[in-house]
Amino acid sequence: MTTRIPVPLTQFVVKMHSRCDLACDHCYVYEHADSSWRSRPKVIGDEILAKAAERIGEHAAAHRLSAVRVVLHGGEPLLAGPDRLRRAAEALRAVLPPGCALDLRIHTNGVLLSRAFLSLFAELDVKVGVSLDGDRASNDRHRRFADGRSSHPQVLRAVALLNEPEYRHLFAGLLCTIDIENDPVAVYRALAELRPPAVDFLLPHATWDEPPKRLPDGGDTPYADWLLTVHRMWEADRRPFAVRTFESVHRTRRGLSSLTESLGLEPSDLAVLETDGTFEQADSLKTAYDGAPATGMNVFEHSLDDLALHPGIAARQSGLAGLSADCRACPVVRSCGGGLYAHRYRADTGFDNPSVYCGDLMTLINGISGGGSSPSGSSSVPAQGGEPLLSAVLTAAQLDELARGYGGADTVAALGRSQLALTRAMLAAAWDASGQGRAEAWGLLSSLDEAAPGAVDAVLAHPYARVWAARRLGGDLTVGLGELAALAAAAAVRAGRGDAVAVPVRGGWLHLPTLGRIAVPDGEAVVTGLADGFSARASDGSVFTSYDQPLRRVRLAGGWTVALEDVDPLRDSHDHPVAGRLPDGELLGWTGALREAWELLGRDLPRYAEGIRAGLTTVTPLRPGPQGRDVSSAARQAYGAVGIARPATAPTLALLLAHEFQHVKLGAVLDLFDLYDRADDRLYFAPWRPDPRPLEGLLQGTYAHLAVTEYWGTRTAAYDGLPGEAADRARAQFALWRRYTAEAVERLAESGALTALGRRFADGMRESVSPWLAVSLPATAERDAERARRERGQLRLAGA
Ligand code: SF4
Predict the structure, then answer these.
(1) Which of 17, 26, 211, 365 has fewest C-beta within 10 Å?
(2) How large a percentage of the chain has pLDDT more than 90?
(3) Does ligand 1 have an atom closer than 6 angstroms to the CB of 339?
(4) Ligand 1 lined by 70 (C-beta under 6 Å)
(5) 496 lines ligand 1 (CB under 6 A)
(6) CB of 330 closer than 6 A to ligand 1?
(7) CA of 331 to the centre of ligand 1 (A)
(8) Integer Cα distance of 393 and 385 in angstroms
(9) CA distances in angstroms from 483 to 218, 490, 493, 569, 576, listed in the order given
């Protein structure tokens, strides 16, 4: 029996003031079922703020969080006044442990926002989000003062201030609540004109008892139609700002995590602190019934771990199992996740229902993903803005972007789609080559592909699904057809439609890829995917319904997750031995290190970080190297996974993640294009290795070291002439790796083995390297780099 570790809370809404200077008639605080605001103090007390900061600090330290987000909210938080806002920000900054970043935001209606407030926020690094429903007519529909006056001019003035160069970095984005009577074209254009960095489009809060507005001739799915109109304009404009709803659909259709609580199956990690010091669940629950968000806990008597274990919060952390039967059987459930929890409420059945927006969500998700990652695994992407397509997958500009070492979210997503299509093709070929054994499992996968394509995609996007096919096709018959049955079983469990399939059990474990493993007697287990989980009937008749070792995921800042894969038997496809099941202490160590490393990647390799987030799904722990040597590896057939032995420090982990993910990206590029003559069997020395390697090895190493060099270049720039050991080390590493990488690019270019596209790729790498060579470094750094090069050269001669 293991002790339950609470899922850490990383997002906190702190109610600074419980009243508002507007009287918006769609507001969930004052206009919906919950009336708790009436009995609360208007403004939060300093004692409560101090205690809340202390709680957040202790929670961050206990869970080794690398970042927490706190949103100062209301009512209208600016009514709390500058002094109290300053005290709140300072209290929060004072208590967080070293290494834990504070993402501090304020969410305002903008009416009171002034230069004085913005100067304060600039000093305290508080980002500002503003509510605005679109053009004046749209905004005036709800967002008015109590006397009926429009608030639109004041909000535009607030946004204009935020767009001034001095304050632009504080602008977090706009929040727009949809009204289907508003013209989506006018709303989109009005918001886009304000150049926001992000827009959140919010469905108005509603339940089955208080359903959303419908128009007599508005069709069956007016909210989806409204949003799809906005989506088309957003795509046509080449996505000028972030929209979490749209991006989350694109991500979840590829098996990645959602970026918003209102979609997907990610566990909720949000808590609310009211002005009287009570903890509540998500604010949106105020729409369900009076008292719905209450937890009975308060900041003085309860820790955040207590709160994280509260049944109401736990219910929003239970993924598929926490959804209604209809949702569990739904083909888009992994993207939709049953919608926002509050929108499922009905007085007689509680939250055990699909969303009241069910039809809209289904239409929206299918509409957004229709042109991209189709359920059948189509790898085509439309050309953007007339840009030439280099293949059915990438534009020429995207390949050039990859060649320079980078690759943003869209580009890496395109690689992911092409890899999924390849996995499907390889799986089919491997099954054919096997004499079509385990036909029952193959038949189930095929029928689920029609009925629940999201479930099949999620399983086949797992990095080690393709490893099975590659090994079989490579003639390795030590991997049996049982793995195919396990893939079908995992898809059946994800679909939850009652489908059953037999899976062989060896070594006492039944493994369901992407889900976990169950201790089951050897033989054959029949796995049935049920609406509320699964059952596995062993050959001796015993029945199992829960995982002994579930696959665990680490949630990272920004709302995405990565799996820590320590149960899949095919994870042994990396060059180094893999670690066994992580004990709890080691799991916590990995969790903290990954969170910190992700923070560092955002800081030191921002041009790589977005691609990593779009494509990295799995970290496979490896066994430590000899004498504590850092060990990491990407497996050519396992797209999306990197293998790493947990290093001593987070910066090293960040560097290893970036290095290995370069191999992942380049592997996917090489699956699409011939960059070199594959008949070339010469061996080449990479400047950093004593042993010669085939051309692909040199190409892979050069590509990985583009990221390594940029990392040290960024660190060098950050130290900007400062003295110290760390600064000297960064300069010496930068001096060394820029030389090595430049030399390797020229070696590739001169090999005579590159195709025309390969030469173009090498030109791209050179484009990134050349500016680094122009950076002036101290003579000592250059001398150290030269000495290291000479020593490496001598090693090579000795080896030769
Ligand atoms: S579309 Fe409807 S049935 Fe499907 S997951 Fe969403 S709310 Fe549930």
Answers:
(1) 211
(2) 59
(3) yes
(4) no
(5) no
(6) yes
(7) 8
(8) 15
(9) 49, 10, 15, 9, 22
Give 171-225 pLDDT, tens digit per residue. 999 999 999 999 999 999 999 999 998 999 999 989 999 899 988 877 889 999 9
For the stretch 721-759, pLDDT in tens is 788 888 999 999 999 999 999 999 999 999 999 998 899
**Residue that has been written with the tokens 């001034």 in this structure:** 164
Please give the number of the atom of ligand 1 that sits closest to the Cα of 344: 7
- Please indicate whether residue 158 or residue 67 has the higher confidence score (pLDDT): 158
- Ligand 1 centroid to Cα of residue 339, in Å, is 7
Whole-model pTM over 0.90: no
pLDDT digits (tens, 9 = 90+) for 30-82: 555 556 656 677 899 999 999 999 999 999 988 877 778 999 998 899 999 99
For residue 329, the CA-to-ligand 1 centroid distance in Å is 9
Tell me how far apart the alpha carbons of residues 309 and 445 are, in angstroms, rounded to a whole number.
37
767-794 confidence digits (pLDDT tens): 999 999 999 999 999 998 888 777 776 6
Which ligand 1 atom sits nearest the alpha carbon of residue 361? 1
Ranges of H-type helices in 195-241: 222-236
Mean of the per-residue pLDDT values of the chain: 87
Residue that is written with structure tokens 């503003």 in the block: 130
Distance CA 540, CA 141 (A): 66
* Across 29-33, 386-390, 710-714, least confident range: 386-390
Residue 629: how many CB atoms within 10 A of its CB? 9
Token output for 527: 């796995």
Q: Which of 692, 685, 687 is nearest to 709 (CA)?
A: 687
Q: In the chain, what is the straight-line distance between the N-terminal and C-terminal CA atoms, in Å?
A: 57
Is residue 322 in contact with ligand 1, taking CB distance under 6 Å? no
Query: Does residue 67's CB lie within 6 angstroms of at least one atom of ligand 1?
Result: no
Structure tokens at 57: 């600090």
pLDDT band at 370 (very low <50, low <70, confident <90, very high): low
Residue nearest to atom 6 of ligand 1 (CA): 338
Index of the ligand 1 atom closest to the CA of residue 333 = 5
Residues 6+ apart with CB under 8 A from 64: 99, 588, 591, 592, 595, 596
CA–CA separation, 608 and 613 (whole Å): 9
Q: Which two tokens stand for residue 76?
A: 């209208």
Distance 531 CA to ligand 1 centre (A): 13
pLDDT of residue 377: 30
Pairing mode, if any, of strands 171-177 and 126-131?
A: parallel
What is the 335 CA–ligand 1 centroid distance (Å)? 9
Q: Which of 352, 362, 494 to mutate to test the pocket of ligand 1 (most atoms within 8 A of CB)?
A: 362
Q: Does the Cβ of 331 fall within 6 Å of ligand 1?
A: no
**Can you say whether the dihedral through the CA atoms of 39, 40, 41, 46 is positive or negative?**
positive
Do the beta carbons of residue 326 and residue 208 sit within 8 Å?
no
Ligand 1 neighbourhood includes 354 CB (under 6 angstroms): yes
